[in-house]
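task queued by scheduler; priority normal; single chain, no ligands, no partner chains; default sampling; output format set to structure tokens
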Amino acid sequence: MMPYQHSALGALVVRVPGPRLDGASAPALRRELGRLIFEGNRRIVLDLSEADFIDSNGLSALVWALKNLGNSGELVISGACNTVMSMFKLTRLDRVFRIFTNHEQALAALAS
């Protein structure tokens, strides 16, 4: 994971590396997001532009992070390809997460 701070907006962009967010990679994502949340990051953009597959384990890690942020923060998704978006839609998580085409749009939405 390659998080970087977008200091002007006070948001953190976390780029998920690799093509798959599944049972093998989801635990590392959960640990990283947990660490970032514990450190006080409350506005997180999760950039999925490099992922072309997500399964229930990956989705579970995202839901876990969102729950851990609670009402005091926000986790938004950016860069999801059609295959990944179909999983969000199939599970109706597209109604839970705010999803943007790219992280620039996501950051702009967090700023407003």
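post-processing summary
- The longest helix spans residues 56-69.
- The beta strands are 2-6, 11-15, 20-21, 43-47, 53-54, 74-78, 98-100.
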